[in-house]
Amino acid sequence: MEYKIAILISGNGSNMLNILDACKKREIKSKVLTVVSNNPNSKGLEKAKVFGVNCKVINSKKFKNQYDFENSISLHLKEFNINLICLAGFMKILSKNFVNKWKKKIINIHPSLLPAFKGLNTHDRAIRMNVRYSGCTVHYVNNKLDSGEILDQEVVRVLSSDNENSLKKKILMKEHKLYIKVLKKLEKLE
Length: 190
Ligand code: GRF
Known about the structure:
seven-stranded mixed beta sheet
């Protein structure tokens, strides 16, 4: 199946850029129809604009509640007939209401080997715990934080010389590969 993808971002957008690139090179058949950022100042937005993809800021701070914010996202995605939402550094937790509306249509990338290190500051916690392996996970999004069904993972060796920053860089490189691998897998599924 060729998906109509929306990518939701908040920050740097390197995963987003990587997906856009894979589409352009026809590594994946699906198309990214829109990039949504809840943060008007996200660096990713500039990168997406250069790519010429539709970009939309839906600033969470401008809505009186989460329901209205998410409703605005849903309406925007429906305009494009989106059938796959890729979260890529999207820093808002989505409500049960939104997740149910888009059941099995939202995937996320997380920089740890879930179920280890859910939530924020994953690399710092991995270093402090002295784990020897970490990595990244792409999973379906469900009602619990970083807990949906795992689609695939990549492992990274953590060296004693690693710090938060070096680990982040190593994992991010794996993230880029993993996200595309999972999208290819999903395209074959349906
Ligand atoms: C990535 O580490 C991703 O796993 C996490 O947020 C970070 C986003 O990085 N959810 P980028 O914006 O794609 O560069």
